[in-house]
Amino acid sequence: MANALAPRTGASDGADAAKEIKGAGFGPMYNVMRFIGERSAAHFFRRVEVIGGHDVPKDGPFILCCTHFSTIMDVAIISAELPHRRPIHYWAKRGLYKRQPFRWILHSSGNIQVDRQTKNNQDLFAGTFKAMEAGEAIGLFPEGGSYTEHRLHSMKAGAAWAALEYAKHMGSDKTKVTIVPASINYTDKSRFRSDAVFQFGPAFSVDEYTQEFLSDAQVATEVAARKDFPFDVQPRDPLASVPHTPGPSIIVSGDNGPHPETRMRLGLDIGDQSRNGSALQTPLDPNGPTLDRAETNGVSLLQTPSSTVSKAPSSSSGARSAVKKLTDRIGAEIYKLTIDAPDWATWHGIKMARELIWTRGGSLPLRDLVPISNAIVTILNLDTPESRKAKEALVTLQAMVIASSTDVYTLNALEKAFGRRSSPRSTSILALIPTGQDAAQALPSLKLSLLYFGEQLLWLLVRLPYVLPLALVYVPAYAVGWGLSLRYASHEEESMASAKSLCAFVIAALTHGLVIFVVAALMLFTPPGWLLGLGVSYAIEKLHVWLLNESYDRIKKLVASIRVLLAVIGVRSGVMPQRGSEDEAVRLAREILYDRPAIQWSYIKTLRMGGLGAGDSAGEKEERQTKAMERPPIASVMGAAIESRKRAQIALAELLATDQVRASTLSNYLPPVRK
């Protein structure tokens, strides 16, 4: 039977599209793609925690509205962890369907083709309506794309338009469509073996808003007219995704956030409904009114000039108001599930504080990731000297982590192994980058560094008999994934995990295939040989996952021990002194973190540009080339990283000891202090 959900590309090729997929909208590639996503997520992340979801419908249509911080990895986690193992559709732009085999793969994996150029909402959402009629699930990202931000991005109105236009398509205010708000938060989305939390908010019915939407005179007229023209026989253009629907980014004071003054970036106003500037640019008219910036009571709003509202033919007040309210509701529910940092400095401070409090990878209670992080936001923005000092010290630590190409968990292990050779002369310097002299004093003795290096090397040699076979299978995958992520995705943090994991999956699949082939060849390609090959491949994969966390942590420690040993030898010989606050390249590592994410590419690019604020004119490019800086040898900043970690730990401890923090919600989550 031809699939009713197959996205149509017009009257001329609708029959061909219908032949491409059989069943209820998902072909064989859906399970293949879901398997790839499951394995990629399982290998990239140490833990994926699922919270809530008990009211996600087992059957019937629903729209999952989720945050979108990590491109394909978000899709992989949703598809793998959605309750009841329900398959879910995603929108895919029309341009991806131009050539085979991509067209067949997209169709077969259940994606709904969308055309951004259409201005007819019924055409825009035709494939989505077909899926809803069949009781299918739809996955949408209301932010409109994947972003790297320190807080929730502005909401687009596409999900609300799709849900309410479905009521118009059905000609009834009883759609039985459910909205399921959700978020995916990461401890560090671009770092291998980090953690992810997939959290669901309370589901609610679209029918709460359909009456107001359908009460609009224009919508009601269109619904009545459509009853004489069955949807199935109307020739339609390809399906279309929601064009970007800009709305105001506003500041709201309330109790939804972790602290009294909650800054909330939504696409629509969730406050006073009579406030100016609530008119929307609708999907029907993506080229409609432009949005002007206005100041209202000291709050920056985006305001639609009233003279331009009439340009959007399907956006009369009733329908527009219903869409606005539903988008507000979706945004407010998603916001409750996210981490809300007011600036990048706070965002970096959150991550560093978590890794100093929960000192080992995998020790942070993931179910409390969002409340813990928002509680840290609160204490880092208190108007106290301790708060300001801790925030600056934590940002400095993040900068030194980037400069030394390591992580806090590894620095924690070094601190435990080496102990403390010296103490800061005064707490007043905790917020500063260590000097070269301080960095050199933070290094261990040559004896300690040699012993630590020997310990890590011995661990690897003892386990070499079973680590080596795993390395032969997986090192090519990790090397290729790492290399491609640096080359093609390093400037976009949200793409790095996807590039690493998916590319690595392809290479690992090839090496596993080679293992199966070799084992089968040794047994002359007999059926038992193929079965044994499959068994060996399966055992290698399971052993790899079982040993991955410890092996990866040990390899990081081994690399760090080599760098520390080189640093100690360099200082003792005078060949490579430790660098600190007097070095411009080291200072830049800290300065870039105030307006951008903490990734290696930001640091490397800034060094190549010769500093911050360099332009792209011909003269500026020439000047930039003369000012370009080389990255300091990693071993030359290991002392600064070790010292910065200790200073941040002291500053954070002083902050946690204050009465304000002891009375805050963060105290409910802190682990017991070891004596």
From TrEMBL:
<keyword id="KW-1133">Transmembrane helix</keyword>
<protein>
    <recommendedName>
        <fullName>Phospholipid/glycerol acyltransferase domain-containing protein</fullName>
    </recommendedName>
</protein>
<keyword id="KW-0812">Transmembrane</keyword>
<feature type="transmembrane region" description="Helical">
    <location>
        <begin position="457"/>
        <end position="481"/>
    </location>
</feature>
<keyword id="KW-0472">Membrane</keyword>
<dbReference type="GO" id="GO:0004366">
    <property type="term" value="F:glycerol-3-phosphate O-acyltransferase activity"/>
</dbReference>
<dbReference type="InterPro" id="IPR052744">
    <property type="entry name" value="GPAT/DAPAT"/>
</dbReference>
<dbReference type="Pfam" id="PF01553">
    <property type="entry name" value="Acyltransferase"/>
</dbReference>
<feature type="region of interest" description="Disordered">
    <location>
        <begin position="272"/>
        <end position="295"/>
    </location>
</feature>
<dbReference type="GO" id="GO:0016287">
    <property type="term" value="F:glycerone-phosphate O-acyltransferase activity"/>
</dbReference>
<feature type="transmembrane region" description="Helical">
    <location>
        <begin position="502"/>
        <end position="524"/>
    </location>
</feature>
<dbReference type="GO" id="GO:0008654">
    <property type="term" value="P:phospholipid biosynthetic process"/>
</dbReference>
<dbReference type="InterPro" id="IPR002123">
    <property type="entry name" value="Plipid/glycerol_acylTrfase"/>
</dbReference>
<feature type="domain" description="Phospholipid/glycerol acyltransferase">
    <location>
        <begin position="62"/>
        <end position="187"/>
    </location>
</feature>
